[in-house]
Amino acid sequence: QVEPARFTGAWANRGVDGQASAHMLARMRQDVIALRPRAVLIAAGLNDIIARRGVISPADYVANIESLVDLAQAHGITVILATLPPAERFPTRPRIAPQPRIDQLNAQLRALARRRGLVLADFHAALAAPGLRIDGLHPNAEGYRRLAPVVEQALAQTRKEPD
């Protein structure tokens, strides 16, 4: 579901479909730190809500994200934190109503970004309009086109000199 053409040249896409924040944390050293990037975009959470690999509390989710941030910053990597995109439904878990949990986690991600001085990429706002998701969850081509400037703006913010 990723737009592969966007991840060429200076980009390294290490996202793995279906993985939750704990799996990202387990891969952080090999998939991010070892590459020594200038910045990392952390986008995680929907698979934590789906609970494919076990239920995780909001507090444990935020702890995983904060640990990812800690590791990146300890290695001089600037963090861009992405909000969770909206989801009408989870095709593999149709009984879960995702939006209330997404709203809760996004509020916590925004607070974390403010508290830690992180750049925030608002994926939720970029994908809020109808017709931007294939299956009520994954972005379609237009959805990816709308995410591109959000990511580019976030990257531009990481390049600015602090006041």
What's this, in brief?
With 163 residues, the chain is mostly helical. The chain has helices at residues 21-31, 46-50, 58-74, 98-116, 123-126, 141-159; strands at 39-42, 78-82, 119-121.
Poorly predicted tracts of residues: none
* Total count of helical runs of at least 4 residues: 6
Computed over alpha carbons, the radius of gyration is 15 Å
Write the H/E string, N to C: HEHHEHEHH
Strand content: 5-15%
Mean pLDDT: 91
| Number of beta-strand segments | 3
Biggest beta sheet attributes = 3 strands, parallel
Overall 3D form: globular
Q: How is the largest sheet built, in terms of strand order?
A: 1-2-3
- Distance from N terminus to C terminus (CA atoms, Å) equals 38 Å
Helix content: 40-55%
User: What class do helices, strands and sheet pairing give?
Assistant: mainly alpha
Overview of this protein structure:
This protein is mainly α and 163 residues long. It contains six helices and three strands, in the order αβααβαβαα. A three-stranded parallel sheet has the order 1-2-3, with helices on both faces. Strand 2 (78-82), helix 4 (98-116) and strand 3 (119-121) form a beta-alpha-beta unit. Helix 1 runs parallel beside helix 3 and helix 3 (58-74) packs parallel to helix 4 (98-116). The radius of gyration is 15 Å and the shape is globular. The model has no long low-confidence stretch (mean pLDDT 91).
